[in-house]
Design a protein that fits this description.
Layout: E1 3-7, H1 13-23, H2 29-35, H3 39-42, E2 45-50, E3 55-66, E4 70-80, H4 86-103, E5 108-111, H5 125-128, E6 135-138, E7 143-146
Parallel strand pairs: 4-5
Antiparallel strand pairs: 1-2, 2-3, 3-4, 5-6, 6-7
Length: about 150
């Protein structure tokens, strides 16, 4: 299947809302619009769209310093949907997240085991989020470790 992968585009914010609600059901449209209101905020949302323009995958990313591992890309939200090619969508999103990590100077990618169901906590994830739960993916070895 043919997909476009990149930073969430302003034109796709409403389409992406349906995807993010799958993992954060308490999120309302007003909060989502606030979280994606500017290009700099949308830079932290990576999206996969299909040829018809439907958003099939979405993840929230940001870089921060881990006290042991060094700089790592944090991924508290990762969602992929599709009736036919769910794995393909997830793979494209994962590959783009790895590229983003390299561009941001990160050595590791941290996929959180569970994102907060409280949509308002997205504002504070950079400071309050967990360090070691979930999967830590090492870009230098191309391997992940479950914590």
């Amino acid at each position: 299947m043919d997909y476009d992968v990149g930073v969430l585009d302003a034109a796709d914010v409403y389409r992406a809302f349906a995807v993010v609600q799958l993992v954060m059901s308490g999120l309302d449209l007003q909060t989502w619009k606030r979280l994606t209101a500017s290009a700099s905020l949308r830079r932290d949302w990576l999206a996969v769209t299909d040829a018809q323009g439907y958003v099939r995958g979405l993840c929230h990313v940001f870089a921060r310093e881990h006290p042991v591992y060094g700089r790592q890309l944090e991924i508290p939200v990762f969602a992929s949907i599709g009736l036919v090619d769910d794995r393909g969508v997830a793979k494209r999103l994962f590959e783009y997240a790895k590229l983003r990590a390299k561009l941001d100077g990160c050595e590791k990618v941290h996929f959180w085991s569970s994102a907060s169901k409280d949509c308002y906590s997205l504002d504070t994830l950079r400071d309050a989020g967990p360090w070691d739960d979930g999967l830590i993916y090492d870009l230098s070895t191309d391997r992940g470790t479950v914590h």
